[in-house]
């Protein structure tokens, strides 16, 4: 197994357990998906590639279109071109996103929902990558599996609503800013369930090109997430300050306000999430807070 990463947001210590337990079977290559020579080196002699490399930032003010295109769309193009030299690769599993659907009225949303109208540059970059992967798969000799992911959370999260709320609480334990009107409702999936889903799709799919929704079977509001985080932080009487948001209560421009995926297609292949959205949020908050307490000399309040 090869782990290929530029470690711009991740850390080597995040894979310490993997390297310790599987040192003879794991090779780490530090490189960038936008550099063809790095990618060609990483995928040589592999039979399957899990393409999860991307700039994950949805908020436009934190991720300009140029970077999004280079890292997400061009990076995907570089990988697909490299596959032409890596004849052993039989499958490519791509981490797409639920944001490719944009604003929809039908919940839970099926993979057949269309037309797809992303409302963020991030969602558009993922949809463009889906199209590229599909075309290369039909022209080449590999199967393409696209996973349209809900919000993935877990112990080492550094991006997203839970780490963001915890950072704010560390600065002010009396008042917590919540972006939007608090009613944004979305599905959250624990990272272990996401890994199981990716492996299931890779092992059991038999189609040349396939798309699967991956998420939990419920959703949770941002306001409820704030309540869970403050509970896990051991804080009482925290004042929630809602910003009101934009465009009818969204947290930011391009924020999909409601998202719940129909996962029956992947469930029919034997996969099912073990955790619901609230459990995923709670376990994630608990783990990040424990890490914070260790880093800050046992501060038990956050």
Contiguous runs where pLDDT drops below 50 for at least 5 residues: none
Quickly count the helices: 9
| Structural class computed from helices and strand pairing | alpha/beta
The largest beta-sheet arranges its strands as: 3-4-5-10
Strand content: 15-25%
* CATH architecture group name of the domain at 31-153 and 188-219 and 258-275: 3-Layer(aba) Sandwich
Mean pLDDT: 93
Radius of gyration, CA atoms, in whole angstroms: 20 Å
How many beta-strand elements? 13
CATH class of the domain at 31-153 and 188-219 and 258-275: Alpha Beta
Largest sheet: 4 strands, parallel
What is the CATH topology classification name of the domain at 31-153 and 188-219 and 258-275?
Rossmann fold
How would you sum up this structure in a few lines?
With 302 residues, the chain is of the alpha/beta class.
Helix-strand layout with pairing:
Blueprint: E1 2-5, H1 16-21, E2 27-30, H2 36-43, E3 48-51, H3 65-83, E4 91-97, H4 121-139, E5 143-149, E6 151-153, H5 161-171, E7 175-178, E8 185-186, E9 188-190, H6 191-204, E10 209-214, E11 220-221, H7 222-232, E12 239-242, E13 258-259, H8 264-267, H9 277-295
Parallel strand pairs: 1-2, 3-4, 4-5, 5-10, 6-9, 7-12, 8-13
Antiparallel strand pairs: 8-11
């Amino acid at each position: 197994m090869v782990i290929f990463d530029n470690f711009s947001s991740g850390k080597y210590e995040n894979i310490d357990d993997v390297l310790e337990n599987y040192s003879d079977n794991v090779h780490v290559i530090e490189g960038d998906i936008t550099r063809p020579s790095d990618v060609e080196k990483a995928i040589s002699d592999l039979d399957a590639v899990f393409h999860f490399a991307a700039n994950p930032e949805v908020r436009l003010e934190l991720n300009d279109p140029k970077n999004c295109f280079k890292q997400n769309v061009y990076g995907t193009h570089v990988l697909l071109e490299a596959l032409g030299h890596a004849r052993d690769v039989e499958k490519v599993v791509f981490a797409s996103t639920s944001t490719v659907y944009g604003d929809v009225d039908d919940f839970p949303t099926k993979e057949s929902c269309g037309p797809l109208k992303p409302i963020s540059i991030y969602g558009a970059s993922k949809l463009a990558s889906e199209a590229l992967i599909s075309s290369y798969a039909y022209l080449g000799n590999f199967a393409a599996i696209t996973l349209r992911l809900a919000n993935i959370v877990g112990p080492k999260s550094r991006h997203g609503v839970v780490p963001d709320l915890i950072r704010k609480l560390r600065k002010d334990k009396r008042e917590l800013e919540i972006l939007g009107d608090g009613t944004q409702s979305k599905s959250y999936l624990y990272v272990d369930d996401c890994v199981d889903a990716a492996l299931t799709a890779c092992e059991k799919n038999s189609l040349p090109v396939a798309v699967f929704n991956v998420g939990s079977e419920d959703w949770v509001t941002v306001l409820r997430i704030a309540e869970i985080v403050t509970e896990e932080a051991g804080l009482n009487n925290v004042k929630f300050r809602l910003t009101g948001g934009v465009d009818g209560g969204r947290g930011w421009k391009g924020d999909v306000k409601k998202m719940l995926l129909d996962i029956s297609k992947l469930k029919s292949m034997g996969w099912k999430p073990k955790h619901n959205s609230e459990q995923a949020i709670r376990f994630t908050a608990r783990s990040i807070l424990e890490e914070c307490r260790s880093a800050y000399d046992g501060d038990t309040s956050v």
